[in-house]
Amino acid sequence: MYNGIGLLTARGSGTSGYVTNNKFNLRGNAFQRRDEQREERGPDQRQPNAGILEHNKKRAVELEVEVMRAQLEDDGTPEDEVEEKLNAYRSQLLAKLKEEASAVALQHKDEQLKQETHQIAARKVEQMGRLRGAFGIGETKEGDAFDRELQDRRRQEKIAERENREQERRKAAKRAEKEKRRAEREREREAKSTAKAAKKAAKQTIKDAKKAAEEAEAARLVR
């Protein structure tokens, strides 16, 4: 036992009494656990570095400038004129590069704006559809309000639909009234049958009682 850790005595424990490592620990080391977590999480997607991309573009510009320098030197152009032309060419390439970046950014912005516009339009269509459903308005087109034939036809359709609903309501009311009368007749028939059965049972009871009384009287006279 050391520093409060271990056994007071090694007798009967089958050990030396000292604290040792657990040989049956299967957790593995920290590196193995980190690799397992990485495999479960999947590969990390690295984001592009804007600085490196910009550096590569400028490097390509300088490469084109050096190619032009070699051509001018081969042509025997004076050094001052070479530097002037190279500076102008470099400025032209950088301006073109900047315009391309602006065009890409503008295109991306336009795509986002179009997407947002389409989303707004889709939400508007959905909202109008819910309103039409709430007010019972069918699909309409621009200019339908000024089409008299269409309006007359829709008016006639609404009148016919209203008449059909009224006829269905009347038929349903008649069926309900007929069913009510049939149920009442059935109840009356059942009540009559019950009353008749009760009357018959009462008569039979009276008859049985009278017969029992007669038999009792006859037995008394015999004695």
UniProtKB/TrEMBL annotation:
Alphabetical list of InterPro entries matching this protein: CWC21 (IPR051372), mRNA_splic_Cwf21_dom (IPR013170)
Chain segments annotated as coiled-coil in the UniProt record: none
Pfam families (UniProt xref): cwf21
Subcellular location: Nucleus
Compositional bias segments (type: Basic and acidic residues): 32-44, 139-193, 205-223
Signal peptide (residue range): none
Domain of life: Eukaryota
One record GO biological process: RNA splicing
GO cellular component terms listed in the entry, alphabetical order: spliceosomal complex
PANTHER family xref list: SERINE/ARGININE REPETITIVE MATRIX 2, SERINE_ARGININE REPETITIVE MATRIX 2
Similarity remark: Belongs to the CWC21 family.
Protein's UniProt name: Pre-mRNA-splicing factor CWC21
